Amino acid sequence: MQPRDLSDHSPYVPGRGVEEVARELGIDPDSLIKLSSNENPHGPSPAAVEAIEEHADRVHQYPKSSHTDLTARIAEKWEVDPEQVWVSPGADGSIDYLSRAALEPDDEVLVPAPGFAYYAMSARYHHATVSEYALSAENGFLQTAETVLNAYGGERIVYLTSPHNPSGSTISLDSIRTIADATAEETLVVVDEAYGEFSDVDSAVPLVTERDDVAVLRTFSKAYGLAGLRIGYSVVPEEWGGAYARVNTPFAANELACRAALAALDDEEHVEKSVETARWAREYISEELDAETFDSAGNFVLARVGDGSAVAEAAKREGVIIRDCTSFGLPECVRISTGTREETPEAVDRLNETLADLELGVEA
């Protein structure tokens, strides 16, 4: 017996981990600088770590009260009803919830190309089909309402990403509103703001309170430094609130993740430090890297280096792990996450040496 035909499903390709690369190269993990997964180089909030330790002896219990408390706290933050907050295992969990709530077999979704692979993956898991709108390196991956609407054909879900991964471009609130106004009544516009804290663009969450056709994704993985706990959420229209209990995987958001997220929300100093460092580091990378870079509002910079796979492989041997963007359909690019103020200059120096060696034909 075989699983169903999954040939249309492109697997998600994550950035490589420090331990994995260290084992491959036979070197000390501490000698590597990992800038491949858009993680927070400052780690989690100390308050979140304390909350994990404090509640560790409760992991034999299902996360009912912690889930309720986190939902209420997020609702308070965004000034929405608790029923509009769908806590999930990472923002990708919310993508699945929205797919379950919205998609019938043979419905269509519209996704950016390049973009986060899981938009399409989740749609196909739910027997929907996928269309794409193209974002181009030639105009800096500019996101406009016209670009999206020119490709729109009545899809049930339209995904927008602001800041966009892997380019870092953003889409304005006015453009999101224009798209929502121009699409059909039964089209849900989903705005992925996983990197929203790093951007100066206004969040689309206020649109959710104004209308019934916009939802927003958020996560604790990036600015809050909780990627390993898999905790995120969506803010959905008021009319959708009652669907959560019917699409949510039972107790999907775990006890420690919920408690850590609650503590992280109150540690504004940690978030501010993380955002400030990311903004400094992306400017440093853009100015000092010996390659073309694209303007970014995220905690990463996309660089056009010629052969992304070759550069990423050579950089790895120089002790810097970056993301080859071939899986995004950008084989000429690499994505470089922002590091600390100490490791970012060191990483850029090593990358510049790598680029110079490859240009000269020297084995890096």
From TrEMBL:
Q: Which GO terms describe its molecular function?
A: histidinol-phosphate transaminase activity; pyridoxal phosphate binding
Q: Which UniProt keyword terms apply here?
A: Amino-acid biosynthesis, Aminotransferase, Histidine biosynthesis, Pyridoxal phosphate, Transferase
Which reactions fall under this protein's catalytic activity? L-histidinol phosphate + 2-oxoglutarate = 3-(imidazol-4-yl)-2-oxopropyl phosphate + L-glutamate
What PANTHER family does UniProt report for this protein, alphabetically? HISTIDINOL-PHOSPHATE AMINOTRANSFERASE, HISTIDINOL-PHOSPHATE AMINOTRANSFERASE 2
NCBIfam families per the UniProt record, alphabetical: hisC (TIGR01141)
Annotated EC: 2.6.1.9
**Gene of origin?**
hisC
What this protein needs as a cofactor is: pyridoxal 5'-phosphate
Residues that bear N6-(pyridoxal phosphate)lysine: 222
* Name the record gives this protein: Histidinol-phosphate aminotransferase
Tell me the superkingdom of the source.
Archaea
> Which HAMAP family does this one have?
HisC_aminotrans_2
